[in-house]
Amino acid sequence: MTVRICVVISLLAAACGREPPPVKPAPPLPADPAVKLESMQIECDSFVAALGAYKACPNLDDHEAEVIGAWMERATLDLAAGHKAEIEPNAQAQAAGACRRAADSVRAAHERCRNGRRPKGDY
Questions:
Q1: Distances in whole angstroms, Cα of residue 114 to Cα of each of 19, 48, 53
Q2: How many domains in the chain?
């Protein structure tokens, strides 16, 4: 009886010790379609406008509004510096893309803000 138990235990241990067969990976996700960007000026102005709308959200506390105001000031200063410099077209396209992504992110944050104050644990 003891031998049978040992044999069963050793068979179970051997069966559990084997690795499962590899899983076939899923096909890769397709890339997002290319986004039609406007000029750097238009995209970055849109970013500053999105910050302004977000700052006006009634569900922000005073500190959050101050931080967003500082972001607006910094973005405005950076854009003014960009107007003074001669920026090559590839760099302008990169900046336009960065401003578009930032504006989309700020719009999403504004949407969340319009739906109520954040819970205290999210700070």
A1: 50, 18, 11
A2: 1
